[in-house]
């Protein structure tokens, strides 16, 4: 039986316009059978303010025969002058059943984010997935349908307006995974409004610093919507220690 490796991931440097660790690594860790802890702490003190930001994340991938389970959770809290005024939570659950190079998957995702105008998001759906394995790389693609609930915040004439949206989206994605690089592109049009489209890009560049024990991941993530006021970017470096 294949043993499950445990990785402790330490953050060496982290910059982000839309902070999140877990979302960027889903495709990279698929099929690896791993448990990963990620965390980051930032302290910014000036003459007038004292700000602390704490991020912690857990990613678990379990492969058992034809069954694969993936769970991702991360939380981020910002404290300013001893007052908690910003927080972010993300949960992603996915089940995948392998059938030769094809498979079926179901997923659920929920997020809350006071850092952006996308305050809450919930989605669930079903899909099919194809994997092509080669000696030096693997290519993965998928098609799915999911229901999405959004709560957005916007400013109108100086006042905050909260909007709740319900929609159904078609999702297609393509991912290239090599030894040192994982790149994934997502395209998610609204079934009822083709002018409303999500486009996301994720990449992870990995350098082995000491055999397979210590690795450095350079991560970039971006997401934008063609109709809603949503545009997020994320860039960070992660030091990963495995034993």
The geometry reads as: globular
Poorly predicted spans: 1-25
Fill in the CATH topology.
Answer: Porin
Gap between N and C termini = 17 Å
State mean pLDDT (0 to 100 scale).
76
Strand order across the biggest sheet?
1-2-3-4-5-6-7-8-9-10-11-12-13
Largest sheet at a glance?
13 strands, mixed, barrel
CATH architecture group name:
Beta Barrel
Which structural class do you get from the secondary structure elements? mainly beta
Helicity, as a percent range: under 10%
Number of strands: 13
Please provide a written account of the structure:
Helices cover 2% and strands 75% of the residues. It is built from 1 helix and 13 strands. It is globular, with a radius of gyration of 19 Å. 19% of the residues are buried. A hairpin with a 4-residue loop joins strand 6 (102-113) and strand 7 (118-133).
Give a short summary of the structure.
A hairpin with a 4-residue loop joins strand 2 (35-45) and strand 3. The protein is built from 1 helix and 13 strands, in the order E-H-E-E-E-E-E-E-E-E-E-E-E-E.
Key terms for this structure?
13-stranded mixed barrel, mainly beta, 1 helix, 13 strands, Porin, single chain, disordered N terminus, 2% helix
Could you give the topology of this structure?
Elements: E1 6-16, H1 26-29, E2 35-45, E3 50-64, E4 67-80, E5 83-99, E6 102-113, E7 118-133, E8 137-156, E9 159-178, E10 181-189, E11 197-210, E12 214-225, E13 231-242
């Amino acid at each position: 039986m294949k043993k499950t490796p445990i990785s402790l991931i330490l953050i060496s440097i982290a910059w982000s316009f839309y902070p999140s660790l877990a979302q960027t690594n889903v495709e990279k860790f698929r099929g690896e059978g791993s448990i990963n802890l990620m965390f980051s702490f930032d302290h910014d003190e000036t003459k007038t303010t004292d700000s602390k930001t704490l991020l912690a994340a857990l990613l678990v991938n379990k492969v058992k025969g034809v069954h694969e389970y993936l769970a991702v959770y991360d939380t981020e809290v910002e404290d300013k002058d001893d007052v908690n005024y910003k927080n972010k939570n993300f949960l992603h659950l996915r089940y995948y059943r392998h059938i030769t190079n094809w498979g079926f998957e179901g997923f659920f995702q929920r997020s809350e984010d006071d850092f952006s105008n996308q305050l809450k998001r919930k989605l669930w759906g079903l899909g099919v997935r194809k994997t092509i394995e080669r000696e030096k790389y693997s290519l993965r693609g998928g098609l799915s349908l999911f229901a999405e609930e959004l709560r957005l915040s916007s400013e109108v004439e100086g006042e905050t307006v909260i909007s709740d949206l319900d929609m159904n989206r078609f999702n297609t994605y393509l991912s290239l995974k090599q030894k040192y690089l994982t790149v994934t592109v997502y395209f998610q049009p609204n079934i009822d409004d083709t002018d409303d489209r999500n486009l996301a890009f994720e990449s992870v560049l990995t350098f082995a610093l000491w055999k397979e024990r210590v690795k450095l991941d350079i991560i970039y993530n971006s997401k934008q919507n063609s109709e809603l006021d949503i545009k997020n970017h994320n860039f960070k470096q992660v030091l990963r220690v495995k034993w």
